[in-house]
Design brief:
Length: about 130
């Protein structure tokens, strides 16, 4: 992943991790990052599906660099693929670090969501 992947895109979430989110190494827990990615990609999937969605798979996720306590974390997410009932959402997480505001790629992933009907069963996505 490079910073170029998110050029021209607005972040879906911007958040600063809290002291409760660090592990014994002084880095942010991977699970905390994963939850932020799920929230951001869920927002995109719900908008695209125009209704309820559920995360059904994380096809790939790679940690590129550690996230530190004072990082400003920007989570970008966009539709990579549309199926009949499912959406593949690409997520990129970038840290803005230090007084120089250095941009550091932290992680990326591909999350799959399925659109749900009122009975929590898969339903077709609306036409674009």
């Amino acid at each position: 992943m490079t910073i170029d992947n998110v050029k021209g895109r607005e972040p879906i979430l911007r958040v600063v991790p809290q002291p409760r989110d660090i592990n014994a190494n002084g880095h942010i827990f991977g699970g905390w990052i994963l939850s932020q990615m799920d929230i951001a990609s869920g927002i995109v999937a719900q908008r695209e599906a125009r209704g309820a969605v559920a995360t059904v798979a994380v096809d790939r996720m790679e940690f590129i660099a550690p996230m530190l306590l004072q990082d400003l974390v920007s989570v970008y997410a966009w539709v990579e693929r549309r199926g009949r009932t499912s959406l593949a959402i690409r997520i990129a997480v970038i840290a803005t670090r230090g007084v120089d505001e250095e941009k550091i790629p932290l992680t990326e992933g591909l999350f799959t969501f399925v659109a749900l009907d009122e009975n929590h069963r898969p339903r077709p996505l609306p036409e674009k």
